[in-house]
Design brief:
The protein is of the alpha/beta class. It contains eleven helices and twelve strands. The chain folds into two domains: 4-115 and 252-313, Periplasmic binding protein-like II (D-Maltodextrin-Binding Protein, domain 2), CATH 3.40.190; 118-251, 3-Layer(aba) Sandwich (D-Maltodextrin-Binding Protein, domain 2). The longest helix is centred in the N-terminal third of the chain and has 13 residues, at 39-51.
């Protein structure tokens, strides 16, 4: 019986699997992403448009989804095979912790490539907030309830010896957080997204913003506990009125694949991805910074055999 390979984009990672019970074309890869207005869907759209003519018998079928957690659950259930997910959410699923605490771990997927940084931007309009320690006693947006952003906020605060008990946490979307800072009801917000982020751009066009930076000592503390974090820079000029680089950390939007997807399918997809980086970047600027060397960083699960084969051919060691 023919198999359908379904692709799913989650917050940060691509995943592959196969549906042996469905009598469909063997070369279809149903590619689930995020919501139709989100970055994952746009990135997936660029991939389908550029790569489909180059993949021979393989075809990526783009679909929207509920992003990282939902995508990983779809992988486990066999409803999706390709996805983008945040590498921290992928770690939680694999270990049954944080977002997946008390649940059976999801382990039937492997990493393919880190695509781009999901930068942790701690934004404020309050000049008195210069460090993470200054968030104590403040009203701080920590993302939606149960989101990956909320766990990023908890982990960063913990690295500085703080907890949600030391702040007034508010669960809100990026847009709601920006509105709250503009109106003065929120003092700072954790926003995790690729650069630039629309909600912050719109805020910076209305009021003066700044970023709470992380220092090297506390970044090292954070990384010693959570190896999915990488040091990152918010470059000067990314947003109106911000004229200096800001040091922070990021998680990675990652491409993952279900373990039972063939080695050749993953290898050919990854090869086409990197060999056509320039064409992809013309469709979506997030591909501009993608490199094979950085694609293996911050991975907390094993790589798919097809991905290992590709990286080893590039002289990149996979641990």
């Amino acid at each position: 019986m023919n198999k359908k390979i379904v692709a799913s984009f989650i917050t940060g990672t691509i995943i592959l699997s196969s549906l042996g019970a469905m009598n469909v074309m063997a070369d279809e890869l149903c590619f689930v992403t995020g919501g139709p207005m989100g970055a994952y869907y746009a990135v997936g759209g660029a991939m389908t448009e550029v790569l489909n003519p180059l993949l021979g018998e393989t075809e990526l079928i783009l679909e929207s989804s509920g992003a990282s957690r939902a995508n990983l659950e779809m992988i486990e259930e066999g409803d999706a095979q390709l996805a983008t997910v945040q590498n921290d959410v992928m770690y939680y699923a694999y270990t049954g912790t944080s977002l997946f605490d008390g649940e059976e771990p999801i382990t039937n997927f492997s990493a393919v490539a880190g695509l781009y940084d999901e930068t942790i931007q701690i934004v404020t309009c309050d000049e008195s907030i210069q460090s993470v320690a200054d968030l104590a006693g403040k009203t701080v947006s920590v993302g939606d309830n149960g989101s990956g952003v909320e766990f990023n906020a908890k982990q960063i605060l913990e690295a500085y010896g703080l907890s949600f008990d030391d702040i007034t946490p508010v669960n809100s979307s990026f847009g709601e957080s920006a509105y709250g800072m503009e109106k003065g009801t929120i003092d700072a917000a954790f926003i995790v997204s690729g650069l630039p982020t629309t909600a912050i751009e719109e805020l910076a066009d209305s009021v003066q913003i700044g970023f709470v930076q992380l220092d090297e000592e506390h970044i090292a503390t954070l990384q010693s506990e959570y190896d999915f974090y990488t040091e990152a820079i918010i470059p000067a000029g990314t947003y109106t009125g911000v004229d200096e680089d800001a040091v922070t950390v990021s998680v990675r939007a990652t491409l993952v694949a279900a373990n039972d997807v063939s080695e050749d399918v993953v290898y050919n997809l990854l090869k086409a991805l990197f060999e056509n980086k320039d064409s992809l970047a013309e469709k979506d600027a997030k591909f501009e910074s993608m490199t094979a060397e950085e694609a293996v960083e911050g991975m907390s699960v094993s790589f798919h055999p097809g991905a290992k084969k590709y990286y080893e051919e590039q002289g990149i060691t996979i641990e």
